Amino acid sequence: MLLSSQGCVVPASPASGPAVPRRLSEADAIDIWIARWLRIRRKDLIARYGCDPRRLYEIWEEKRFIGSRDKALELLRQRHPSLLDRVDCGPHRRIPRGVPAELQPGLFDQLDGAQI
User: Fold this and answer.
1) 13 lies in some domain
2) Positions in the chain whose pLDDT score sits under 70
3) What pLDDT is stored for residue 97 in this prediction?
4) Residue 59: CB partners within 8 Å, gap ≥ 6?
5) What are the DSSP calls for 31-62, one per residue?
6) Strand partners, 114
7) Is residue 2 within a helix (H) or strand (E), and if so which, with residue range?
8) Euclidean distance between CA atoms 34 and 73, whole angstroms
9) Domain containing 52: what range?
10) Is residue 65 in some structural domain?
11) First-residue to last-residue Cα distance in the chain
């Protein structure tokens, strides 16, 4: 993925090869937010920036580059004003993988002394 001169995210040509690993900057964080809202695949973002997927989630959870989401939202308003009503610009929500044990307490407990 590359950013064109008009500010749109476009796919990189296959001949360009893999991205060189580097430290992400605030400008990268803003581009990553915009790419997320434009539904660019996570796999493509990882290939473009040559980073570990955890770095993307640090940006989306705003553990790094705090305030980059607000800057990206303002830039999205300038570049793509017609998309604002079709894009979910809400903050990232972590969905836990495991089911907490307290959701079904006593599921296999005996009922009134009867065996199950």
Assistant:
1) no
2) 1-21, 100-101, 103-116
3) 79
4) 24, 29, 32, 33, 65, 68
5) HHHHHHHTT--HHHHHHHHT--HHHHHHHHTT
6) 111
7) strand 2-3
8) 8
9) 25-88
10) yes
11) 57
The count of other CB atoms within 10 Å of the CB of residue 72 is 22
Question: What amino acid occupies position 113?
Answer: G
Residue type, 20: V
- On whether residue 9 sits in a domain, the answer given is no
Judge if pTM exceeds 0.70.
Answer: no
Q: Answer for the pair 93, 36: CB distance below 8 angstroms, yes or no.
A: no
Q: Into how many domains does the chain fold?
A: 1
Domain-embedded: residue 51: yes
Buried b / exposed e along 27-62 (16+ C-beta atoms within 10 A): ebbbbbbbbbbeebeeeebeebbebeeebbebbbeb
pLDDT at 55: 93
Cα angle 69-75-77, degrees, rounded to a multiple of 5? 105
Structural tokens at position 42 = 């996570």
